[in-house]
């Protein structure tokens, strides 16, 4: 039985991103997976890594719980909008505060290299855009995809990362959104 953690990074619970999370969850539950969820907007934490990595900031209980869920999961599903070529500020703060040295990776003594603590896990990024996905890819080079896949997930050991890019959402018709909800439910059913 696959253990799946769905992490929603959108700050608005009425967003299409929450409908996408629900669609993925519906499919994954139908496949027999065990699901846990993190809605970053509901967590009580300071998103600012106040001292960088120079000095440790005590983790709030919600972030300690998030770390336990991240450790527990076999498969991480990140659902978020792309804003200014990146993730929302609250999600970036979550990443900064949770994926810490000693938890997500371990720096090697007297070396520039590190050990990855999330080896064996897989991930799915489900990202919404207000522009066509092809435009984001070919004209901008998909910067948020590279940051999340290569500089975050791969950095901590998650090697197999699939990406679903959905856009444009702004001005989209209900038929378009329904099509994507069905696709995402199918992705969940296949546990990918």
Walk me through the structure.
With 192 residues, the protein is α/β, with parallel strands linked by helices. The chain has a single domain, classed as Rossmann fold (3-Layer(aba) Sandwich). The chain is 39% helix and 20% strand. The chain is built from 6 helices and 7 strands; from the N terminus they run βαβαβαβββααβα. The protein has a 5-stranded parallel β-sheet, with helices on both faces. Strands 4-5 form a two-stranded antiparallel sheet. Strand 1, helix 1 and strand 2 form a beta-alpha-beta unit. Helix 1 runs parallel beside helix 6. The protein is globular and about 55 Å long. The two termini are 13 Å apart.
Task: Summarize this entry quickly.
By secondary structure, the protein is α/β, with parallel strands linked by helices. It has helices spanning 16-30, 61-72, 89-98, 133-140, 143-156, 174-189, and strands at 3-8, 34-39, 75-81, 105-107, 114-116, 122-128, 160-166.
Topology:
Elements: E1 3-8, H1 16-30, E2 34-39, H2 61-72, E3 75-81, H3 89-98, E4 105-107, E5 114-116, E6 122-128, H4 133-140, H5 143-156, E7 160-166, H6 174-189
Parallel strand pairs: 1-2, 1-3, 3-6, 6-7
Antiparallel strand pairs: 4-5
Helix pairs in contact: 1-6
